[in-house]
Design brief:
Elements lengths: L5 H21 L3 E3 L2 E3 L1 H4 L1 H12 L1 H24 L6 E5 L9 H10 L7 H6 L9 H10 L3 E6 L6 H10 L10 E3 L6 H11 L1 E7 L13 H10 L8 E3 L7 H4 L10 H13 L2 H9 L3
Parallel strand pairs: 3-4, 3-6, 4-5, 6-7
Antiparallel strand pairs: 1-2
């Protein structure tokens, strides 16, 4: 999210929404499974989510609120933890530290799918800091808590990732504290490895995987995991808002990434058509 400075910047953020919308409407077509459709037709849901992420003052407020709460919770956690291992927090990078909505906007406006253009965007050093994150991370450093930047980014992006974090003058930017695991390891394995070396006092991210919560095979198990650990949210687990992408979406089509966009859209429409009672029935029926 671009940081607003005064009325001019605020107006600039509002204008951005209209510019992005106009840009998307001007793009001619994009191909998907042999069918030509405009990016607006292909990904209207993503357009709405991206615009909310980029221009909604409410999203910025939620980020400030989240990191202010995390700072208070960190103080409470440190009073109760006095182990032998160095204390640290695990924090995701994308849309937890670095706002990727600029890339998401480019993706939607051109009708392309991730990961097209992703590596170039990362290595360009683009993306604003998520509101409130820098102050929180500097507070961690002053409190004697190390920061572990953990991400599913490809290891080939290590140089670009480190350069961006250094550019933003964030603490603990070195090879030991930046962990990119991509597909070589699962999030669970990374969590176990880091927990063996550090006393992890807090997990921060925009996806449940970032919190080292396992056993999430479908919507039912994801909701059960949250309900089972509800007392830890806001304390040990800190979650940032992100409606642009995530496994919450993939869970609707059982993580079958081989489905076409058309097939995924049909499944999303099915879930959207359910009443509250039918939604509960569908979720409870999952194995």
């Amino acid at each position: 999210m671009i940081r607003a400075r005064g009325v001019a910047s605020g107006m600039g953020l509002l204008l951005l929404g209209f510019v992005l919308g106009s840009t998307i409407m001007s793009v001619v077509t994009a191909k998907d499974a042999g069918e030509e459709r405009s990016p607006v037709e292909c990904d209207h849901r993503s357009l709405t989510a991206v615009l909310w992420h980029r221009v909604a003052a409410e999203r910025r407020a939620l980020c400030y609120q989240t990191y202010a709460g995390a700072r208070r919770s960190l103080g409470d956690a440190l009073q109760m933890r006095a182990g032998q291992k160095p204390r640290a927090i695990m924090i995701d990078i994308d849309d937890t530290v670095i706002d990727t909505s600029e890339y998401q906007a480019q993706r939607v406006s051109s009708g392309i799918s991730y990961p097209a253009g992703w590596d170039n965007w990362v290595n360009s050093g683009s993306g604003a800091l998520v509101p409130g994150v820098k102050e929180f991370l500097l507070h961690c450093e002053s409190a004697g808590v190390e920061v572990l930047y953990v991400s599913g980014r490809s290891e080939s992006l290590m140089a670009g990732t480190a350069a961006k974090l250094k550019k933003e003058k964030l603490p603990f930017v070195d090879r030991e504290h930046i962990v990119l695991y991509d597909t070589k390891k699962t999030a669970g394995v990374v969590c176990s490895e880091l927990s063996a070396k550090y006393d992890i006092v807090m997990y921060v991210g925009d996806q449940l995987d970032d919190l080292c919560i396992g056993g999430m095979a479908n919507i039912k198990s994801r909701i059960s995991a949250v309900e089972g650990g509800r007392s830890m949210f806001g304390a040990t687990y800190i979650v940032l808002p992100n409606a642009m992408y995530g496994k919450w979406d993939a869970a609707m089509y059982s993580y079958d990434y081989g489905l076409s966009d058309i097939e995924k859209r049909k499944i999303r429409h099915f879930w959207a058509s359910l009443t509250d009672s039918k939604l509960l029935e569908e979720i409870c029926g999952q194995q």
